[in-house]
């Protein structure tokens, strides 16, 4: 074993201390360099002037528009290290918005620092207009965010504005219409065009007085014409109407308008009008008159018995053609049927237009037994209600000839408990109705406990055409819809049912349908599940009357959205899609 001396041990100990000192110094230098490096790097990487707010989350910006405003809902990005926005600035324009590109048509919102949270309402926009939008977040302590564009530069559109008031019946006439809108509204002019000449747009520049009053009378219109009328602020549409002018008082040898204080259309009055018409025509056997009845008036129809003062039928004088015409300017006038209308004699035409006919004791409208010849008997744009027995009946043995019965754009309600709606019941075959045309009509609760809709007792016709009409709660007591007598040996030469709807029948009889030598040719016609008659060619639907119509029990046959896709029935009830 080798023993170390004291001298060698001392040398070794000094050497170890020297190594430790060197390592310690190196560690201190390394730590110093490391600390210096961290401090210098922080000063070099961060520039406070470049710090800014986060922009909005573009995917969560939604816009709900009204006529002159837009409600904007949005969501901001949040972070613990970045302050929240204090307010927001919105810019909208009808022109596209681009970064760094000047746009003189920009509308700014929020520069007053009032738009501080979602949602915000941007008001004062134009109706029916397309807008682009951008938004930025703002703060008094941090730089504003960058612009965020609605749907990456897409637009939204405001709803169409309507400052026009509704046109009431009292505003609408055959040749003019009284227009009104919000008084003092910012408007410049009105345009209008006839639907038959839509490219020929006429312009009316409004005066300051008309603007302030919010009123203008548009004259020079054509009767029975549809017009589109638009009001503008410069090129911005602020309202639009579509109106149809009523018919003009029909031409005749003599026109007579009832005074507002007349309450009875009497035999005496009819005879006086007939004498005036004869004089104008210069013909005592073929002459015409139009009797204008004021809008909203209520007049009774009856004559007076000379012997006892009782009420009698009113007879149209022989040779006279006549139109009973409801004048424009309000609701259709009402003729109360205290007694029947007697059409004895010869007449080229007898017509009722734009009037309401209401039962007041007559029981019938026409219950003709005396001989007559009428080329055409017409109801157009009428409402007929509550006749207890029959609407149009020919009876008795005297010869009676009706060339054509036309029912157009009319509504018939609660009629005929005793005989058919049209009832040709002739002894010895002495009377006939040749043609029936029904177009654009509604029949509600007809012959519920009575006879058939059309009855011709073993007597042929030339044609029956029923189109664009709605039937509801018709034909009860196991009666036919159309009946020409047993054995079906009689009927029309041609028979057409087109674009009709048959709703709820008054009973569940399925074997009383159409009895005629000529079957009906049926097109585009439909029945509800509660119409039990079987008319060949009428299509089944999956809807009951209450499912198809808005409120049939109360006479509203508007077709509900999402039901019948085809256009059928009385056009006044067509569904209006949103």
Automatic annotation (TrEMBL):
Residues 55-145, 160-241 form the Fibronectin type-III domain. InterPro entries: DUF5123, FN3_dom, FN3_sf, Ig-like_fold, Pectin_lyase_fold/virulence. CDD domains: FN3. Gene3D superfamilies: Immunoglobulins. Pfam families: DUF5123 (PF17161). This is DUF5123 domain-containing protein.
